[in-house]
Structures are given as structure tokens and as C-alpha cells.
Amino acid sequence: MIHTRDDDGVRVVTLSRPDARNALTLDALDALATAVEDAPGPVVLLRGAGEAFCAGADLSTVAEVATDEDSARAFVEQGQETMTRIEEADAVVVAGIDGAARGGGVELALACDVRVATPDATLAEPGVSFGLFGAWGGTVRLAEAVGTTHANDLSLSGRVVDAEEAKSMGLVSRVVTDPRTVADELAANDAGALRALGRLGTHRGSKSERERAEREAFVSQLKTHADALAEHRNR
């Protein structure tokens, strides 16, 4: 289900299960995280095949674990671990949302460093309509991304938003025809700085801890590029 292609500093990771709107099975979760973590370049573009980005968790898998508490907990923990692995990957991960993102598909996008949508994208957290809600870190990351007012609206209503409304609330940063153009734009920058910024953006420590991490990352980048900076200064 998980296909990868490396091209000019960008690893394109495609969820390729279009007949099921790219719904994620347990096996796919681990394969997805590994594909992102193993990227040789500084940027990963995450896409869905067919007419959807990702419909979320595979409902047959959800049904299988529903009656056993230990299995249900393991299912949630595996999803949370996958999202955290993507969030903490060295590469900068771009979610290219084209078509429907639902439930766990929205949570997957929220684990990425950058989220962009095509004009055909729609996003929703519909779990509340059948007694569930986002449990792969979604209740945490959604509020961080859009604030509690929008997060509560989306989670409690289950309503669908289009690309422009998603942009207006900060759920995505841009509406673009082709998400690959954004990945290429990022990949044209310094790989070390990209990775440092990606790690800093997901740091969840205290303010002083985040400032310390920022300081050390900047010092490291200065050391790496000292010669180039000196040459530029002397021009």
C-alpha cells in the first residue's frame, strides 16, 4: 500500500489503496512511518492515490478491535506512535492533500511539518457521528494547529470543510494546483537548516527548553556554514 519514489531531494510517499480511499491498516501504519524515516533527502511529500488523500483508519480493522479493550488500546497506540515517528522524522514532511482527508487522514496531515491542499481537497473529523473521535494525536495536534475554537467546531460537528476554509483557519497553509511544487521549493533550500527547523517546529518542551534547542541548532548551522558566510562577507 505504501509506495516510495526518490526524485531530486524529494521522497514521494504515496498511499496507494485507492479502492478503499487509502484507508490505513495496521501494517500500513508501520510501513508509512518507516518510508518517511528512511528518506535519503531532506523533504518527503506524502500523497494519496486516486480521488482521496486518506480516509483514516481502515474500518474493518476498527471493527475487529472494537470488542477487546487490549486490542483497541494497542491499535490506538500504534497509530499514535506512527504519527509521532512522522512528526519527529529528520526530513521535512509535506502533506499534499488532494481529495478527501477524513479522521485519521486529517491526523496524518497534522503530523506533517507542512500541509497544503489542492482546490479539490476536503477535510473532516466525522467520528463523532458514530461515537468516536480522533485518537492518533488528533485532539492534541488539531487544537495546536487551528486553536480550540476551530478544533472544537470541527470535532464536535464532524462537518466537512473545503480547501479555502481549511486555509482560512490554518489547517493548511496554501491551496496549490500541485503539492509537488511546494516540496520542490523546500528542497531547494539548505538540507541541514530544513532538518533543524523541522525538529524545532515539533519540540514540545518548556519555553526555555525550546529556546535552548533553537540556540544549539543555530550554533551548529553557523559552524557548518562558517566558510561560506566568511566568503559572502568578504565580497
TrEMBL record:
Pfam families: ECH_1 (PF00378). It comes from the Archaea. GO terms for molecular function: catalytic activity. SUPFAM superfamilies: ClpP/crotonase (SSF52096). PROSITE patterns: ENOYL_COA_HYDRATASE. InterPro entries: ClpP/crotonase-like_dom_sf, Enoyl-CoA_hyd/isom_CS, Enoyl-CoA_hydra/iso. PANTHER family: ENOYL-COA HYDRATASE (PTHR43802), IP11341P-RELATED (PTHR43802:SF1). Belongs to the enoyl-CoA hydratase/isomerase family. This is Enoyl-CoA hydratase/isomerase family protein. It comes from Halosegnis longus.
